[in-house]
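task queued by scheduler; priority normal; single chain, no ligands, no partner chains; default sampling; output format set to structure tokens
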Amino acid sequence: MDVSGRTLAFTRHIPGNVLKGNWRVLAVIDDRSSPQQEEAILNVWTGKRGGPVADLAQLVRRSCRRRTVACHLAVEGGKGRIKIGQIAEAAMAPFLGPSGQPTTLNESVFSTIPGSPAYLSQATTYKLTVPALGINIDLHDHNAVQGDFRFVA
């Protein structure tokens, strides 16, 4: 099943040590996804297809109901905007180094995506509202870290 160009976003509440589990999760799927694409995406990210993602899925204690909403992501190199329905919104721009290029971290614990740099940025806006997880955040001018990854079959 081809899911190219589709978005899956998670909001998570992780109480304490990330490796101890007990995560509470809300999955948000791009409303342009067909029912078959939605099922394929969720089968991977809930661990039903096995592999390393199944190990990650074991850390989830409770999943809130999933939502299908409009997802708009235009972020590259630490700069851009994210809008996920009425759930999340962010705008960020990278910090620039002496050369005028974006500041990145490579091969560090802050870059959790192997092979991808972590762009150190400032989020002029960051809003996240998930009542089911007890989350209502509205921040301005805080730090942000952005990285890219792609799954290839």
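post-processing summary
- The longest strand covers residues 118-130.
- Residues 8-67 form one domain.
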